[in-house]
Amino acid sequence: MGASLLSSPAFLVFFSLFTLCLLPDPVLGITRHYKFDIKLHNVTRLCHTKSIVSVNGQFPGPRIVAREGDQLLIIVVNHVSNNISIHWHGIRQLRSGWADGPAYVTQCPIQTGHSYVYNFTIVGQRGTLFWHAHISWLRATVYGPIVILPKPGVPYPFAKPYKEVPIIFGEWFNADPETIISQALQTGGGPNVSDAYTMNGLPGPLYNCSAQDTFKLKVKPGKTYLLRLINAALNDELFFSIANHTLTVVEADAIYVKPFETDTLLITPGQTTNVLLKTKPSYPSATFFMTARPYVTGQGTFDNSTVAGILEYESPPHSLHSGISIKMLPLFKSILPALNDTSFATNFVSKLRSLDSAQFPATVPQKVDKHFFFTVGLGTSPCQQNQTCQGPNGTKFAASVNNVSFAMPTTALLQAHFFGLSNGVYTPDFPSSPIIPFNYTGTPPNNTVVSNGTKAVVLPFNTTVELVMQDTSILGAESHPLHLHGFNFFVVGQGFGNFDPNKDPAKFNLIDPIERNTVGVPSGGWVAIRFQADNPGVWFMHCHLEVHTSWGLKMAWIVLDGKLPNQKLLPPPADLPKC
Predict the structure, then answer these.
(1) CB contact at 8 A, 402 and 434
(2) pTM beyond cutoff 0.85
(3) What one-character DSSP code corresponds to residue 507?
(4) What band does 315 get if pLDDT is binned at 50, 70 and 90?
(5) SS3 for 220-244, per residue?
(6) Across the beta sheet with 86-89, what order do the strands follow?
(7) Is 255 helix (H, G, I), strand (E, B) or coil?
């Protein structure tokens, strides 16, 4: 730091970029700097005060705002005793896999007293995403929105909203989530469930000792608001509705969709949905609940509660209404589907279609180079000797993909791959289909024990992939929101029962399927996705129900470098954390 910053080449580059950006229509994006201090701070919810890991003393964490084409430099400084890493969920990370964030996959975590700069550029993306911790269960409190605006002068493909509001759903635990999962992994039983769901960090008035912690959305009559909805909950898919109001869905996972109206939507952990809320033309003399509660398909215990926020209309000044207390107004409640309403879930998901306009085309791979068939679901692991376990029939709960329960390495996969040191870290032999086929959604097999391994699929650059993910009935059919790092994919088909490779592909939508980064594998069914492996690196794929990830429902794809310079993974940054 001896040289003056003002004369340093980095500053001159930054300054010239900055001045460039003052021009009316910058060709390049700008560089945006953020600093995340990972610290403990005290938070009180439901009359419980506890110390939580958070970013900059904020819960939820700070909002990141950028434009398509911008470079982000986010310095994360770890002041807590836990190891930490941050994932920028849904960001493509083209050739910048070192900044993706999942611990022991693309980086070793940031240790206490250390820091790391996440350096990436937002290429060809705009919309709502989010960031969260990607190690153990720390994302319970370490999360926040990412808002990517279009390039300057590029409009939304819908009327410009009067105002934009992020609404991020989470889960609140009175106990420490780290203790909950470490105890569950020790005993082999299911972890304790959350005590509340939250909306922008607030549980709302339907919980004891929580009326003061209610998110209020104040609106004006006759306006259109863009609500950026994010499900950052650990373990629960959610239904969401606003009483007496219709929502127009315009985007999912930062991809524009063909707009459609709905009273209720379904959003899984890891998904985002942008909706337009048109407010009533005149002051309604009422307030309205905005509520979310879980969609549940599994057999385990779950948090059966409801988070509520309140939609309040501003009363016109000097009107008869302005003197009336909000508390005196009638409060309308929203009606949500039954907890296990799979037909609503299926119907809602089937309405999602890519906008597929000239400006935002759906570039669905039409030919497939490699076909994969993965079973996803639960299983068991044997109990260690001299221990009693609390999983099924005295075993431990496990989860797997193609019956491989992923064992996390102790060094990062991306480093091992990049430096050719995979020996003893991972093997490139992840099965492309189940080694022992069975009736996946029928009577489960007697043997439910999973195998363990750190296995990856290796793909040559630009391979087009079709992957069918099949739920199983082992320990109960269940919906699994699967998230793929480093890519968006097209959801070309889905159905119930066992996938039929002879009949089902004929029904695939290869014209305008929804493109996203997280998809729900239907309970007792299957989903088919296609993507092009055009991003070199190591890319994690896992269930976004955190408990299933902890149990091993995860794997990795390794995409090799292409021949051209712009098809190769860049070398690691100098400050990449060490294990």
Answers:
(1) yes
(2) yes
(3) G
(4) confident
(5) CCCCEEEEEEEECCCCCEEEEEECC
(6) 64-67, 143-149, 127-133, 86-89
(7) strand
